[in-house]
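Hi P.,

Sorry for the delay on this. The queue was packed all week, but I finally got your sequence through. Input first:
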Amino acid sequence: MNEALRGCPTCGSRVKDINLGLRDFRWVASALPGKVAPMDLDFVLERKGQVLILELKPEGVGLSVGARMTYRTFEKMGCSVWVVQGEGPMVTLSRPGQNESVYLHIDDLIKMIVEWYEEADSDVP
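Then the structure:
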């Protein structure tokens, strides 16, 4: 099991002690070939056909190879994908496949999300 997922960030319970139900994707992963497995999306915002996806990670935890491939596919489809690392108030923002990252306050991230939304809102589909 991924070390970063050993404890729930909300309640502090150990993940192995929590009944995740259908959110524990092992119910379908075992039926898929090889090491293929589903992943969840942490944050999705859609406006007028534009899609923003945020992957939220603890500081220092990177994306798996499969997640990186999936997010690059989403980007090719026209989605904006941002990786946010940290718990706040300071976080690191990056994009899959790019080596650049920005260290910023959560309030600045909120402003960026609002700007993304307003720009998408002004676009005519």
